[in-house]
Amino acid sequence: MTERPHRAGRGAGRSAVRGTASVGLVLALAGLMFTANARLASSQEARHPQDLGELADRESSRVEMLAARVDGLRAEVESLTDEQIETIETGDADAAELVAIAAGRAAVTGPGLTVQLTDAPAGRVRHPDATPDDLVVHQQDLQGVINALWAGGAEAMALEDQRVTALTAFRCVGNVLSLGGRVYSPPYEVHAVGDPRALREALMAAESVQTYLGYVARDGLGWSVTEEESLALPAAELGGGLTHARVPDGVDVFPTGARGRGDLAAAGAGDAGAGR
Q1: How far apart are CA 236 and CA 166, in angstroms?
Q2: In Å, what is the CA distance from 86 to each residue of 83, 218, 247?
Q3: Which of 6, 117, 142, 151 is 20 to 30 Å from 21 at the Cα level?
Q4: Which residues, at least 6 apart from 274, have a Cβ–Cβ distance to it below 8 Å?
Q5: Which residues have C-beta within 8 Å of that of residue 34, sequence separation ≥ 6?
Q6: Please, are residues 108 and 193 in contact by the beta-carbon 8 Å criterion?
Q7: pLDDT (tens digit, 0 to 9) for every residue of the chain, 276 residues total?
Q8: Is 254 within 8 Å of 162 (Cβ atoms)?
Q9: Single pTM value for the model
Q10: Contacts for 180 with CB less than 8 Å, ≥ 6 apart
Q11: Domain assignments of the chain as residue spans, ordered by start
């Protein structure tokens, strides 16, 4: 028998063409998907920055914008409050002035002290038992200074550039100070108008201040007290007020060993944090 050479049929030829076309279609779809994913990732990165520095810059800009809005609203509140006060008959002008000073609504100028506290510098040789928590200024450190100055007869006070009143509240978050909607970095300054000698004596007699000075000597925390011939403290920024208050049932208003006026005035300056 004569052998005939084998030839592929028409069906086989069509199958090869369809297979080639399928592979091409799959590759085309894959390329389209890769292109779409790349575009989507690019748009998401534009909306949500992956770089931490860029993200911090954007958030800082947003904070500045909100702070500007807050300042504008505060100015509006102060203007409306001034208009309201001008329509009220105060009677004794001297008494009204004293009330305004005590409430922090009037700017004050006079002699006093500036107390500065700051974190321990980096690279300094420290006590072997020192922890990172020992090397920064804490909320209770500032609270102790403020209370001591009130007890020493301070007539008015400011923390950084803001007036301290019964409504003042501040909080230390990490190594920064949050006060009145603003954030401050060390060094922190407390300004007090009053008799410099009496203020210094009360400051150095305070137990909380002596505790802080122990860490100054041991770990290098910053501390300085400067007598000022003339301090100019601004009026408090109005951000709201108390509508009413009452003493809780069963609480003695003037218990034995009651604190002085200064301590009561400073009580609103933030809850004291955990002791060192």
Answers
A1: 11
A2: 5, 54, 31
A3: 6
A4: 140
A5: none
A6: yes
A7: 444 444 444 444 555 555 566 666 666 666 667 676 666 555 544 445 556 767 777 778 888 888 888 888 877 877 776 665 555 555 666 676 677 777 777 888 999 999 999 999 887 777 788 888 888 999 999 999 999 999 999 999 999 999 998 888 888 887 788 888 889 999 999 999 999 999 999 999 999 999 999 999 998 999 999 999 999 998 887 655 556 667 788 877 665 544 333 343 343 344 433 446
A8: no
A9: 0.56
A10: 162, 168, 170, 237, 239
A11: 55-85, 108-240+261-269
φ/ψ region of 187 (left if φ > 0, alpha if ψ in -120 to 50, else beta) reads beta
Checking DSSP bridges between strand 222-233 and strand 156-159, what pairing results, if any? unpaired
Burial annotation 249-265 (CB, 10 A radius, 16+ → b, else e): eeeeeeeeeeeeebeeb
Give the type of residue at 62. Answer: R
- Residue pair 205/128 in contact (Cβ under 8 Å)? The answer is no
Tell me the two tokens of residue 13.
């030829």
The letter for the amino acid at 68 is A
Q: Which residue has tokens 């509240």?
A: 169
Give the fold, CATH level 3, of 108-240+261-269: Alpha-Beta Plaits (3.30.70)
